[in-house]
Amino acid sequence: MDTAINNFWNLVGGILLLNSETFAAINDLPMGLIASILVVLLAGLSQTLGQSVMLFINRIRPLRFLLSVAIAAVIFLFNYNFWVLSTWLVTKWVFNVDVYLIEVIKTLGFSYAPLLLGFLMVIPYFGMPILIILSIWTLMAIATGLGAISHLGLWQAFECCLGGWLVLQASQRIFGKTIEQITNDLIDWVAGVDLITK
To answer: Rounded to an integer, what distance in angstroms lies between the CA atom of residue 193 and that of residue 41?
Structure first.
């Protein structure tokens, strides 16, 4: 049986090429939701590994290092969920586009495919430029995917993404300090030390 898991790397390749037909296939194939969540978790893991220099500097023991990376990937998944929800709300309320939340979840999940290369941020001097390129690439994938499932034009889909991002930023400003403190405390607890991040 053809599933999104069986075609995982083919789908990821199509997303990296910004192929709008791939986004349609994601929503048609069984197990698309599981595959999209897997993309987000792997992207979070890759990006965390790219930023793992901080853990090495703090001399974290191997088991605690692995736990810290896993926790950071799960936190990355929660941030993704907030962006999905805010983008879906903007698409529905501002643009009056009737699109299913499950389709937005699958589409935005696979749109994180460029961040699978996040581990490259560990390269000295090139980490930040690589992150910027991957972020722009991801945004282009999100706009392409949202356009494919909602039949919006590329610029309208981009405006939905931007609107969702602005809602996310506003909510982070309102609730962000508390959430950031909780997540930092959790990562410090898992790492076994107060991490020096500056």
So the answer is: 25
In the chain, which residue ranges form alpha helices assigned H by DSSP?
8-16, 20-28, 32-50, 53-57, 62-93, 101-111, 127-150, 154-191
At CA 175, angle to CA 49 and CA 79, rounded to 5?
Answer: 30
Alpha-carbon distance of 32 to 47, in angstroms, equals: 22
pLDDT confidence of residue 153: 80
189 burial (CB, 10 Å; 0-12 / 13-18 / 19+) is middle
The pLDDT of residue 165 is: 74
The distance from CA 97 to its chain's CA centroid, rounded to whole angstroms, is 23
Contact 61, 192 (CB under 8 A): yes
